[in-house]
């Protein structure tokens, strides 16, 4: 646990005197209250997250997260398939340990699939129809949208979103923890990065929770994505204290890798390994990118 003001490590956030009385700990380094958000209710904490208050983020990803995880073992033998009872017990314990994060990830993924589906459908209906009719090449998302079964469309977009978020998570963790050597002093550094990214992506569901945003338009979904990207960069800056230049460079590189890898996997699935169709998809995606640039349409959407 840390002081949310100066980042100094502390042993406890408060001293409990009786069932309903606690005294917040003062930081030995900066002499301020270590974590004032201990006494905040969820509504105030939610508002502070919206406002990108550094203390609110540090409270959740450092202190609150550690208090939730410290009662569980650090490692699970999830791959012990030879003892089925141990295998099931470890997985059940893992789900219990990460119950809060898993539920938020599930909500986020479900909503992200919907956003992606609406966005891509709007793009191809409003922006790319002329290009598609004049193109002799295949386009990945267009072919997904031509699938007659909505369930199959949803599965494809779910795969797209899960793959995209997984790459974003793993590549960011790999860079910060392995290459930038951040978090060596934190016990749950891997979970801290994951939780930070989860909270920043939660910006996408804030408007629908307040019931004030029309989500079915291309402009609104694009604005939401740009806001979420801003939240992601700012939250990583708050938590890691890395310079903006380094975080933006990381974000740009990860974005390019995600685009290439996820689209490539979808291409393999749709083409069923047919080399000619794979080549057609690659040419189609390249020509579409060129069309977007030359026509100055949908560049930032």
From TrEMBL:
Coiled coil: none annotated. Signal peptide: none annotated. It comes from the Eukaryota. The keyword Transmembrane applies. It is found in: Endoplasmic reticulum membrane; Golgi apparatus membrane. The keyword Ligase does not apply. Pfam families: Arv1. InterPro entries: Arv1 (IPR007290). Mediator of sterol homeostasis involved in sterol uptake, trafficking and distribution into membranes. PANTHER family: ARV1 (PTHR14467), PROTEIN ARV1 (PTHR14467:SF0). This is Protein ARV. It comes from Eremothecium cymbalariae (strain CBS 270.75 / DBVPG 7215 / KCTC 17166 / NRRL Y-17582) (Yeast).
